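Give me the fold.
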Amino acid sequence: MSDLVKKSKIEKLFSFSVSDWKNNREEILKTVMNYFPSSRVIVRSSAINEDSSDSSMAGCFESVLNVNSAESSEILKAIDRVIGSYKLKKMESSFNQVLIQAQTKGVVMSGVVFTRMLGTNAPYYVINYDDSSENTNTVTGGFENKMIEISRFAKLDNIPKDIYPIILAVKEIEGIIPEIGLDIEFAVNDKKEVILFQVRPIVSNSRKNFDEDVKKHLNKLKQRFIALSQKEDHLLGDSNIFADMPDWNPAEIIGHRPNLLDYTLYDYLITDSAWHEARTSQQYYNVNPAKLIVSFGSKPYVSVRNTFNSFTPKEISNELRGKLVNFYLDKLRKNPEMQDKVEFEILYTCYDLSFDERSKELLDYGFKKEEVRSLREALLNLTNNLILGSKKAFSEDASDLDRLKINREKLERNHVDQSVERKLEIAGALLSDCRKNGTVQFSRLARLAFIGKILLKSLMNLGIVSERFYNDFMNSINTIATELTEDFEQVCLGKETKEQFFKKYSHLRPGSYDITSLRYDSNPEILNMEFKLRETKPHSSFNLDDETENRINQALKTNGLNFDARELLDFIRIALELRESSKFEFTKNLSDALELIASAGEQMGFTREELAMLKIDEITTKYAKTKEELTSFWKKAIFERNKEIEIYNRIELPPIIFSEKDFDVIRYYSPRPNYITDKRISGKIAAVPRGKAENIDMENKIVIIENADPGYDWIFTKNPAGLITKYGGVASHMSIRCAEFGIPAAIGCGSLFDTLKNVGEIILDCKSKKIIVGGSSQNAGSNFPEKRKE
């Protein structure tokens, strides 16, 4: 191929089979030494099944770098290591080959390009690369540093400059080897030359080509982005951003690609208007009408301009509001890794004790001193009013939640008619009342809990309280998860029956909005009642000593906050505990409604998976007069959705969309996980698949799960040593749970998650804020440090 390629080059290469090596070892050694005189070479694998179009084993076998071609012992040892890896993987064959190639000098980037998406055959170039060292084996060995996905329809002038020569080289190779997906190992040297190492066919579980459909839908999504980014009269901000985590964390709660029923339920109950109704009632700016979450394809995104407007105090001027929103948007553009930390690192949603120091960034941005003073005063008034008025607010929302419970029990008592129509009617009533007496109240409580945590973190960041104080206080809070764990232990000890336990927790399911995920009472495998109990209760006792109390009181008074240390800590405790109990209560309505829908669907001949393809208003609104007409309507809708899903599953989208270009060139920002506790642990990984609840052994292991809502609280009955999630923020459900139990965790690891789930053992160092991959000499010491402390 070296004579055919012009956009890349191939280093000198010598190859031989395992059979050749066994029969002519001495001759091969001499040939290698003569062919590569006094140079450094790399010894690679090339198994017969590694290049198969039916299987993919790239990176499975050994590769040895920096072999001195002048030393026969080094060459021999390296070749034996590669051949030994075939035996280790039980893939021995006399036809397997060993490749010896001149090691490229001056490497500035190395990696692997897949010319189609693995599994789906989707039309994207996927480039995993390392641009940090001359180690050309970092990526092919399975430890990718960076990834970029580029649509095959992307304009060449939109491709990043550092990736452009690679794409040109790849397109040239595709012209030589057309119509099949390729796996290409490459490097780029300091002369900007693309060096080819290997070209192999790749496996695809889908031979069907959806390229034209994907192209058409991508163009529609770009037009949707343009339309949703237009300025609106009642919303401030010159542009818009769409991200999957800044507010109400859709990627965490309903997943990266949720079912349509999950998405529309979440929208109906919370993100259509309940979210901003709650904030407006707490003296934030009224953004009505404004949806919080919109979808591109099947992926939900937060409309960032909408949420940033909703976090500004009502009493500031629109001129100041506009400047603030533009500042927030610009800061997120420069720091995309902050998208799950916006309330702590980008926004000013309440007054905290670091305001005077932190607000210097506003002056640097061009705000006037008078504007900063105006914002300070508005935030101070809002914070004082919310905390001093919290007792009444807590009481009113708790009363509404009691009413929710009474109404639900009344509906259940009157549930005599088992007809499809009656089940769907009750499901609609349960969801309507959930919206009226549950989710708005939960939204308000969640806001107060955030404010409390922001204040507490500011006390810690200023050194007024220690990190130990912060962790001990958070660990002392008892929520419904504490009760679940204690009740679980009572069942294990024979002091409580399983029936009593499931009566209380029956409604929980892994994925609260997911009808395909079974509830606790329908899934006995989720909780193993014979499991070994914790030796000690995880909660710590918390004491507010006089010295710390005085320091907090002085700081609060100096800043103009009209409450003392004990009032603040009581406020935080109650807000967090009520937030969790309100979530536990409103999800009962949601869960019961889903079960009624599933039961009605079963009577009509529909599976849970089919029902998941419907919108909630297609289920609870009477689109047809009879059951037969409704059945026909659903069948038609499901048929159309199946076709859409096939296309949407082949569209790749980024975590954040800043411009139309992001639909074609998908970059992943460097993750900055939210570390919980200050502990350091090491252990093996226990991976929990999304929506699954198999009886996985988690005891003393570091559990790794993509996202987790209240339905995953059963994890804490399994005695995990630690927890890692792909999605989740600093004040998300699992962050609070892990703080409550004192379990070290890295919440919201982003793209790092996909690397971690494939390793065997790690060190989770929360104090130093890093994850160290362990378990083999190849990756020992690899770490992913947090860029800076929160």
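The chain is about 45% helix and 15% strand.
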